[in-house]
User: Which sequence fits this backbone?
């Protein structure tokens, strides 16, 4: 019979996705925007073409605002594209449709390049980006891109359902293979496995939908800027230090890896104790209560010692915890 309860899984993980995005945007968007910039990017349809510096009384941001505005006007007016370079005040000046666009200064050039070389490179980039922007606004391109976006959504839905089916299949197989001689321990193991598969499934679904959304928004010129902004925020959020313990800063990615290793340590300790219970202690003359006491001490001892080792490898100062562990020993 069809299980209608499973229909609520996508909504559940969609809420998880919204929560994660809100968390990331709230805690890390402001610090990213607040960073002082020495250069400002020239952007067309959300894609960065190049960066320019301050020039005289004009800041880099003021210069890029003027350039970006002119590029948008040319695209929205569907004007023909003509980019050329002239010398004004002994500096190469880029003109767009005979209108002033940009003067290349010494601060704008990259190391090892001259003003004229930099101007030619930027003129080619501007002309190519404008031609591509015109092409992406044609009816044919938009129809093809809409079809591709719909296909990607269907494929994502299919993969999301397939991941759920795989999770249920693995849990069902694991529950059948667990012996019934130790109902309590098997029940605990099954709960741990089910939690593990749920976490893995949620992570994979979130990653799958995020990838699909970013790819689809990158296809259309009107939404491409969202794709670049979200990508930059996520990359910065996962790689920038967010927590300092002792003298070592840690990023969100490093903390996630550490949590994953600790979770794997718990699973390893539980698997090892279950193996000892079924393969070794069951053949001894030790009574059931003593066996459970030994296994509990062994399991939590492994978790405690393993946690200390992981934290030490991670560079955390655990000297106080080591003294406590010695006293407990």
Assistant:
């Amino acid at each position: 019979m069809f299980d209608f309860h499973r229909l609520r899984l996508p909504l559940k993980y969609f809420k998880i996705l919204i929560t994660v995005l809100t968390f990331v945007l709230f805690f890390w968007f402001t610090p990213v925007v607040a960073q002082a910039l020495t250069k400002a990017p020239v952007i067309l349809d959300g894609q960065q073409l190049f960066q320019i510096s301050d020039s005289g009384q004009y800041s880099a941001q003021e210069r890029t605002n003027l350039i970006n505005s002119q590029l948008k006007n040319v695209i929205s007016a569907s004007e023909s594209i003509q980019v050329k370079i002239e010398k004004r005040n002994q500096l190469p000046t880029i003109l767009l449709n005979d209108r002033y666009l940009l003067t290349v200064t010494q601060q704008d050039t990259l190391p090892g390049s001259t003003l004229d070389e930099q101007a030619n490179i930027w003129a080619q980039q501007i002309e190519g980006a404008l031609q591509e922007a015109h092409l992406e606004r044609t009816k044919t391109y938009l129809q093809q891109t809409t079809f591709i976006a719909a296909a990607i959504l269907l494929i994502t839905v299919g993969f999301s359902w397939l991941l759920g089916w795989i999770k249920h299949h693995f849990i069902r197989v694991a529950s059948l293979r667990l012996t019934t001689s130790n109902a309590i321990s098997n029940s605990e193991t099954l709960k741990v496995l089910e939690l593990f598969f749920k976490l893995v499934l949620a992570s994979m679904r979130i990653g799958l939908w995020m990838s699909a959304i970013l790819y689809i928004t990158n296809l259309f010129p009107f939404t491409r800027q969202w794709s670049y902004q979200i990508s930059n925020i996520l990359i910065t959020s996962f790689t920038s230090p967010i927590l300092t313990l002792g003298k070592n800063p840690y990023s969100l990615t490093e903390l996630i890896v550490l949590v994953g290793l600790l979770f794997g340590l718990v699973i390893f300790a539980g698997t090892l104790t279950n193996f000892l219970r079924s393969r070794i202690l069951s053949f001894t003359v030790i009574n059931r209560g003593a066996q459970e006491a030994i296994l509990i001490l062994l399991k939590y001892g492994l978790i405690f010692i393993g946690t200390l080792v992981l934290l030490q490898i991670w560079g955390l100062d655990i000297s106080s915890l080591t003294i406590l562990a010695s006293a407990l020993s």
